[in-house]
Amino acid sequence: MTETSSELDQAARRWLGKSPERLNAAQARVLGRTIAREPVTRNPNDAFEDELTFGNRLADKVAEFGGSWTFILAFGAFLLTWAGANIVLGRLSFDPYPFIFLNLLLSTLAALQAPVIMMSQNRQAAKDRLNATHDYEVNLKAEIEIMALHEKLDRLRAEEIEALILKQEEQLELMRSLLSDASTGRGRCLAAIANGT
User: Is residue 13 part of a domain?
Assistant: First the structure.
């Protein structure tokens, strides 16, 4: 546990510039999964769908149907049929013009449909927040992984440059040695020529 907390502390300070105590839940979860090399991705819709009650599902279906062209066309046909039938029947109509009973039905429908649609919208907003949190976690993990790759590439580049410098120093030393040997050999040659040998 201490090792993990130490790793979390180092990761939080290196990648997010915060102490672990200042991390929010999503940041702590992402760092923990990054350290453990576990994926962050999941389908938030699965968890959300599992928690829906029968009433929630019914509200979603009512909102889905109430916001469709099928509902608009069917309701328009119902209203035309209601008004047409009552006008044609004249004095025998069950709801004569100005259609007071129809007005009552429409008010009741609106009074019931509005809260059901609002329930569905609230649930959709909660689902959107869950998706946004998940997107944030995935983006944060990707950003951390990219920063880690940059650190690794920088370290590899530094090691490669260091190795090249060492190789270059060895070659320079070898060249100095060859020049030294050549100048010593040339000096012997010149001395031999000068001595006439």
Answer: no
